[in-house]
């Protein structure tokens, strides 16, 4: 694990006051202060976003109190912003945060016993994007949340990125809210095995609320679950370089209304990009809790050029269970889009659990292209409808091409 080292010159002090009511507490990027909830103006404790020392153009550091980012202010994320134990980062609807194109040194991370309260609305979503003039996938890390829910890799396990600990025994653990949130140009890579995703959820509990999410143009996975019990609703992933929807290490939550799209213009690709990649435990397929998510009302579309084909549209392996219902898997025809496998439940490090159950329909794809050594239940159902696209109207995405693919068949 590559360690990210913070020095006194690179950490910004963030503190809170004892004020109540609607006072907004913000950070002083210049550092200073004693972080004890008191102090006077100029000592690094900022009591309002109107304070002259507050510089939203340099957002980074350790959040040790409760801070609020307000709509209408231009924020620039310039380094690691870590929400520490006991602290809360609140973000108003309509707030936009631009991240410096600093790769893996720019990210937002929420520790165990900390919270992020990002409550956007359909009319005013919260947007995390790149500050680059010509933004690209991997410009910055992404959003990382660690919780105390069970994972089958143990307790007090270090996250793949951001240097947090995760795992525990609190299934209902609450890490806050992500609602009506858009994250773009994420997925910075540390090395060949350690990468940020758009949103990474490590041992996140069911008390956490995650809904109405769009992740666009990421350099690794769109969203990934590392154990935990969190449930998610209305998740839209567009153009992930690797897997669009990924889980591992004992995730047992529910995902409802999921839309995964790879567009023609997005030509970045890893060696094995997938729609869904589901794992149990690479080193011990019987490790508990077994991954066993419920995924319902899902559409997976690959409209990419045949030179950037998908590996598997659904890949489940290494002891994972799963129940997937009302699924639609489609390939575009104009670009001769391709996929190695419709469904693959086999792997040299362990097949999927035989309890896997999938109800699915294919469009412009061979529905018999299934690898099913475990003998799982796979039902081809011509009546499945997949995701409800209307739930993603807040994204302002043009669904013309998507609807054309879904409404035509060879």
List the helices and strands and how they pair.
Elements lengths: L12 E2 L44 E5 L2 E4 L5 E9 L4 E4 L4 E4 L7 E4 L4 E5 L6 E5 L12 E4 L10 E2 L6 E2 L9 E9 L14 E4 L6 E10 L4 E4 L5 E9 L4 E4 L5 E9 L11 E5 L15 E9 L7 E7 L6 E9 L7 E6 L12 E7 L6 E2 L5 E4 L19 H7 L4
Parallel strand pairs: 1-2, 2-4, 3-5, 4-6, 4-7, 5-8, 6-9, 7-10, 8-13, 9-13, 10-14, 13-15, 14-16, 15-17, 16-18, 17-19, 18-20, 19-21, 20-22, 21-23, 22-24, 23-25, 24-26, 25-27
Antiparallel strand pairs: 11-12
Q: What do these coordinates show?
A:
This protein is mainly beta and 410 residues long. The chain has one domain: Pectate Lyase C-like. 2% of the residues lie in helices and 36% in strands. The chain has one helix and 27 strands. The N and C termini lie far apart (47 Å).
Largest sheet: 25 strands, parallel
N-to-C series of helices and strands: EEEEEEEEEEEEEEEEEEEEEEEEEEEH
CATH class: Mainly Beta
Q: Helix tally?
A: 1
Shape: globular
Report the C-alpha radius of gyration, rounded.
21 Å
Query: Any guess at the CATH architecture?
Result: 3 Solenoid
Quote the average pLDDT: 87
Fraction in helix: under 10%
Primary descriptors:
410 residues, mainly beta, Pectate Lyase C-like, 25-stranded parallel β-sheet, two-stranded antiparallel ribbon, 1 helix, 27 strands, 2% helix, globular, disordered N terminus
How would you summarize what this structure contains?
The model is unreliable at 1-54 (pLDDT under 50). The chain has 410 residues and is mainly beta.
């Amino acid at each position: 694990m590559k360690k990210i080292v913070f020095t006194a010159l690179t950490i910004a002090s963030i503190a809170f006051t004892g004020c109540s009511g609607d006072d907004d507490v913000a950070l002083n990027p210049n550092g200073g202060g004693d972080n004890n909830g008191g102090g006077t103006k100029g000592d690094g404790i900022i009591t309002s976003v109107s304070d002259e020392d507050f510089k939203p153009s340099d957002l980074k550091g350790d959040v040790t109190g409760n801070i609020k980012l307000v709509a209408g202010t231009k924020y620039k994320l310039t380094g690691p912003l870590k929400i520490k134990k006991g602290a809360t980062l609140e973000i108003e609807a309509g707030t936009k945060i631009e991240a410096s194109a600093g790769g893996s040194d720019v990210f937002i991370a929420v520790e165990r016993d900390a919270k992020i309260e990002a409550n956007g609305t359909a009319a005013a979503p919260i947007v995390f994007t790149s500050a680059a003039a010509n933004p690209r996938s991997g410009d910055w890390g992404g959003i990382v949340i660690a919780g105390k829910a069970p994972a089958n890799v143990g307790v007090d396990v270090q996250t793949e990125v951001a240097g947090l600990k995760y795992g525990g025994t609190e299934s209902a653990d609450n890490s806050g809210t992500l609602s009506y949130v858009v994250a773009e140009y994420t997925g910075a890579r540390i090395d060949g095995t350690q990468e940020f995703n758009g949103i990474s959820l490590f041992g996140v509990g069911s008390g956490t609320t995650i809904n109405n999410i769009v992740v666009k143009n990421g350099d690794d996975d769109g969203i990934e679950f590392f154990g935990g019990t969190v449930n998610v609703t209305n998740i839209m992933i567009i153009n992930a370089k690797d897997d669009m929807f990924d889980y591992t290490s004992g995730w047992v939550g529910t995902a409802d209304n999921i839309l995964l799209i790879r567009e023609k213009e997005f030509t970045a690709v890893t060696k094995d990009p997938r729609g869904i990649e589901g794992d149990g435990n690479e080193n011990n397929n019987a490790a508990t809790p077994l991954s066993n998510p419920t995924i319902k009302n899902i559409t997976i579309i690959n409209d990419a050029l045949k030179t950037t084909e998908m590996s598997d549209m659904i890949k489940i392996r290494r002891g994972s269970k799963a129940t997937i219902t009302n699924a639609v898997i489609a390939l575009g025809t104009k670009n001769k889009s391709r996929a190695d496998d419709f469904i693959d439940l086999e792997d040299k490090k362990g097949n999927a659990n035989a309890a896997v159950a999938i109800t699915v329909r294919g469009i412009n794809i061979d529905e018999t292209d299934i690898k099913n050594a475990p003998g799982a239940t796979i039902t081809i159902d011509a009546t499945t409808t997949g995701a409800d696209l209307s739930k993603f109207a807040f994204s302002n995405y043009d669904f013309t091409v998507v609807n054309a693919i879904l409404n035509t068949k060879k």
